[in-house]
Specification:
The chain is mainly α and 372 residues long. It contains 13 helices and 2 strands; from the N terminus they run H-H-H-H-H-H-H-E-E-H-H-H-H-H-H.
Length: 372
């Protein structure tokens, strides 16, 4: 339910709400509900990435415990990329160029689909492993192909000639999405769908069982409901960022809970699991408020000139908020690409099987040890 399954039940709930209160009223109330819910769901999901990524920063950048490739990824995403993105935002504001921020915004909207499908792919792999099911290399390639094809089609459609758009008060001109791009990406999506169905059926024929349903739903919901048909339901579209954030926070909970359990007893005698989880939750809430509310509001009030009545400015009244909002999103995508890779030693805490799976083997081994 937390990793995507709840989406299925929100469709009939949305239908009931619209039937009772009407589309206009229900959409108005729903948009405000999820706006305020973002304070405790969406914003902390961005903030907790910083707490995970920059913890033990020196070790992550220089320790041989991490592979050279992983260390280079960390340095790029943790040092090089934020310098480039911050410089981009500052230059745009200094030049008073709404279009320069607009290019940054368009990059965000391009990469958000990549971020969503990669997370859905992780749901399938991690939750399948926790159920004792290993995704084969062929299944891995098929699901990745389907995920990336879904990302491409979602971005390419609908056909657009470009035009002026607004993001956090900044008005910019967006690139066109031509017809050939939508058709090409649609063909790729169809081919990838057939391939995915093929590998699922193959497993059923050879092993007598399918991939676990829960993880598979998490993948397909991330691609089809949250991206390709994200605007299909007028109410659910407001819930998608929160659902994605819940999906993310569930895995943060897993990794930090299991890590805390591993260090709670001897020889580390670390802080109790509950204390660690509450600490990171409160820190994420505070940092989320600072990144999306406290800091941008202060900076815009302090440094953005007020627009005289009757004047028009494409940068609007909150250009620093627009730049910082876009920066955090883009940086979040890059940091995630490092944190959740298999090469990261800490991801072992995601792979711990449920007690019901490991207990029989552990009990058997203990019996043999005592007998010996």
């Amino acid at each position: 339910m937390l990793t995507g399954g709840a989406t299925i039940f929100l469709y009939p709930l949305s239908w009931v709400i619209r039937r009772i209160w009407g589309v206009e009223t229900s959409e108005y109330e729903t948009s405000f509900f999820f706006f305020y819910l973002a304070y405790v769901i969406n914003d902390p999901h961005f903030a907790v990435t910083y707490l995970l990524f920059y913890r033990n920063a020196r070790k992550r950048a220089f320790s041989t415990e991490y592979s050279r490739t992983q260390r280079m990824r960390w340095i790029f995403s943790g040092v090089v990329a934020p310098i480039i993105l911050i410089g981009w935002g500052i230059a745009a504001i200094r030049m008073h160029s709404a279009q320069t921020i607009g290019w940054m915004v368009q990059l965000m909207y391009l990469l958000v689909g990549w971020h969503y499908v990669k997370q859905g792919f992780g749901v399938l792999n991690v939750l399948s492993a926790r159920r004792g099911v290993k995704v084969t290399p062929m299944e891995r390639r098929a699901t990745l192909f389907h995920a990336f094809a879904g990302w491409a089609f979602a971005w390419a459609s609908p056909i657009s000639l470009g035009g002026d758009f607004e993001e956090k008060g900044v008005v910019y001109h967006a690139v066109a999405h031509p017809r050939w791009l939508m058709i090409t990406s649609g063909v790729m999506l169809g081919a990838s769908s057939l391939l995915l169905i093929g590998v699922i059926v193959q497993r059923k024929l050879t092993e007598g069982k399918m991939l676990p349903l829960g993880p598979l739903v998490g993948l397909l919901v991330s691609i089809w409901s949250w991206m390709i048909f994200s605007g299909w339901d007028p109410l659910l579209r407001y819930a998608i960022p929160a659902l994605h954030s819940l999906q993310y926070l569930f895995f943060v909970y897993l990794i930090r809970k299991n890590e805390a359990k591993a260090h709670e007893g001897p020889p580390s005698f670390g802080r109790p699991v509950v204390v660690r989880l509450v600490t990171i939750a409160l820190a994420s809430l505070g940092l989320g408020w600072l990144l999306f509310h406290g800091l941008p509001e202060f900076l815009d009030l302090a440094f953005t000139p007020r627009i005289p009545p009757g004047d028009v400015d494409e940068l609007g009244q909150t250009p620093i908020f627009a730049a910082l909002f876009t920066f955090v999103n883009l940086h979040h995508y890059l940091m995630d690409h490092v944190i959740w890779r298999r090469e990261n030693p800490e991801t072992k805490y995601l792979q711990d099987a449920p007690a019901a799976v490991v207990a029989p083997e552990a009990a058997g081994a203990e019996t043999e040890r005592l007998a010996a």
